[in-house]
Amino acid sequence: MATNGIQWLWSPQHQRYYHVTYNADGSAVYHWQNESPVQPVQHVRIDSPNTDDHAIESVPAELRPWISGLITGTSGPAEALDSTYFVRTGNDARRFFIVGRVFAMLYSDAVGNTASINGNDDAYSAIRFGEQVYSNIRRFVVVKVCQGFVYACGITTYSNRGTLKAGCVPSQHSVVYFTGTDAGNCYIQGEWDAGMWKDPIEVEPANGALVMKRESRIRFSKTVPIEMNVKVKDIGRVHYAHMSKLVAYWEEEFSKSSA
Asked: pLDDT digits over 57-96, tens only?
């Protein structure tokens, strides 16, 4: 149904028409027909009890058309190549997908399809499994939690060149490092002078076997919506003392892009 250029959608649950707009901070505003707008996504409780602890968290169907670039899950509970990448369900998903969570996602391609892998994509690193399959790993840090999905910023080394890689804007990034690492040794000569002045962000690793390369950077200027039903691997959590900086840096860059 469309009136005055507005595309109204039908909600079977509420038996009413509605449309959705978005605030500057990316939160959804629901406009129900003949009612004042309400904002359930902005205030949704992610820790609310769920009677089915095996339920898969996903974006409501009526919201999907409004979330540009949403990364959605694939079939199956875990990655065939690496079972440490798996879908979190129910309360586990709500405990996992919180602000400050650092996680990895794995994408796989057959060797015959490697042309589809962009080796210059700064968010990817190629891993080879035998002679038949290549997989790409992307790391993210959660900066905002919404209903069934999160907003996250990518973590990348820019092919081990840090923000000195051509096209990067150093001021939009920060060093990210594991607890126990000297953050000062993570800077590449020239990055500070080029404007990478944001304080480093410390991450407490999920286990001692994980590695965070010294060239790893958080890009705060690009936010990616990721559904909670994706297969992910736990990398760790931002140290509690650095949480406010993480969110402030993201909000700063987000406000610039929304201006």
From this structure: 666 776 776 677 777 766 666 666 678 889 998 889 999 9
Confirm whether pTM is higher than 0.85: no
> Cα–Cα distance between 11 and 198 in angstroms, integer?
44
Amino acid at 149: F
Could you read off the pLDDT of 177-196 as tens digits, one per residue? 999 999 999 999 999 999 99
Extended beta strands in the chain, E state: 2-3, 6-7, 9-11, 16-22, 28-32, 86-87, 101-110, 125-129, 133-145, 149-156, 173-178, 201-205, 217-227, 231-238
171-174 — which CB contacts under 8 Å span 24+ positions?
Answer: 171/195, 171/196, 171/197, 171/198, 172/219, 172/220, 172/221, 172/253, 173/198, 173/217, 173/218, 173/219, 173/220, 174/198, 174/199, 174/200, 174/201, 174/217, 174/218, 174/220, 174/249
Half-sphere exposure of 247 toward its Cβ, with a 13 Å CA cutoff?
A: 12
Element (H, E) at 251: helix 243-258
C-beta separation of 27 from 146 below 8 A:
yes
Q: Is 142:151 a contact under the CB 8 Å cutoff?
A: yes
